[in-house]
Amino acid sequence: MIGWKAGDLLDLRDLTKEDIELILETAKSFKEVSTRDIKKVPALRGKTVVMLFSEPSTRTRISFELAAKRLSADTLNVTVSASSLLKGESMLDMAKNIEAMNVDMIVVRHKSAGVPQILAEALGPGIINAGDGCRAHPTQALLDMFTIKEKLGKIEGLNIAIVGDILHSRVARSNIHGLIKMGANVTLCGPTTLIPPDIEQEGVKVTYKLEDVLKISDVLMFLRLQKERQEEKYLSSIREYTKLFGLNKEKLKMAKKNVIIMHPGPVNRGIELSADVADGPQSVILDQVTNGVAVRMAILYLLLGKKELVSDDLKGQGDS
Ligand code: NCD
Fold this sequence. Notes:
With 320 residues, the protein is α/β, with parallel strands linked by helices. It contains eleven helices and nine strands.
């Protein structure tokens, strides 16, 4: 068996609304740990978490590593170059070697969709998907949902727009699955070539005009234009893209007064967002980064066998 109930986090499609609520609630308690002078609780002492990344990543890897360390787990980073690992099979060999060293959890990022599933089927330790190809990035969507709830008090009933390169975005896919489950009204916005046909079947609306979502949205989530995933043939030019789908101060005037602006990072400044908007008062981009640690702490904690938060697990090493 694989999936959330079996100790893996592969795709938000496996999770119920209650599972998501439990993660967000648990993360709330763990957020406080990172504000302490000594940012560490003994909850996962003796557990080993391995980060197996074969695609460039800075914030996601650091975030997982900090999360594991703040729970007192031992961590190990395995960065495999994309050229030495082009196929799921060779990643499997590598992971089998890691498994043989008795680790408890493997956090995987891979450029091919489905690799985390293959590993989860073949291996004993839990697998967390830290992004596979264009398919899923469940921890990013969970930290996005945490941030929305923290800033706006709820998710249900909100108008949430996801803007940009939906076609290549695992962040968009996971957010669609999560946000719809939590009762949000999700609208996708982008160039016709970068929105998958039939995506409405997932329960979202689609528009090709930024103005349509600017006026009604409580949350504007911008995606990075995935230059490495060959967008050239999808767009006439990046300048045109920015003109139509980028957000700047002028266009922001059309939006609701307390709209929040999100982006999973890294931001292509001047393409998806102008610098003053990315750094402006409505931007919650750095809150997303902060919350990522707490949400990943909650996920590691819940997956490594703790079904609910025990208050003792929030006590620091030296607390009585
Ligand atoms: C995202 C990713 O890698 O999927 N970034 C991230 O996890 N912080 C989004 C992106 O690369 O555009």
